[in-house]
Task: structure prediction
Amino acid sequence: MTLKLYFHPLASYCHKALIALYENDTPFEKHVVNLGDEQSRAEFAALWPLAKFPVLRDEARKQTVPESSIIIEYLAQYYPGKVTLVGTNADQARDIRLRDRFFDLHVHEHMQKIVGDKLRPPGFNDPHGVEYAKRQLQTAYGMLEQDMKTRAWALGEEFTMADCAAAPALFYANFVEPFGDAHPNVTAYSKRLQQRPSYARVLEEAQPFFKYFPFHDRM
Result:
C-alpha cells in the first residue's frame, strides 16, 4: 500500500491525522509504534529520528511526512477526497490554519502539560506549570464558548482540519480540566465531534488503550 501511518491509538495528535484519513476513506497501512519497546522505537527512529508520531510515509512518492497538520495538508494536495479539509482559497485556508493553531497551541498543548505532569515521578512535578495550563485552558474555553454559539463546526457549517485538531484536544482536555456548566456550547461541540463517524471510529479503536491514560478514572 502506498501510504503508511506510524502512530499510537491513544496519542491525541495521532487522532487528528486519523480523522482526516477516515473522513475521506483514504487507503493506508497502519503501523502502531510502541515507544516503550526498544525494537519498535528504533525502527520508528530510523524513519523519523525525533521519534514523535504521527508520521506518514508515502512509498509512491518517497516522502516522509511528520506532524499532524502537515500530514493533513499533504493528503489534501496529493490524495484529495470528498471532504476538503484545508479550504478552497487562500483566505479560507488561512482561517483554517489559524483555528488549527488555536486548538493545537492553546488547548492541546496545555492539556498535554497537565497529562505529562501526572506521569512525572514524585518530587519532579511542576504545580505552577499545571496551574498556568489550567488557566490558559479556561481562557481558551471562554473564547470558544462565544465562537460556538452560532457554529456547527469550528469555522461554520463545513468540517475542516480545524475540527480534526479540535476533536482530540477537547476530548482529552475535558478530563484534565472539565468544561463545566459555564461552557455549554463547548460541551455540545465536543459531543458533536465525538459523534462524527470519523472520530467515533478513532475513539472505538482507542478504547482498549484508555486504561493507560493517566486520568482514565474520570473517563
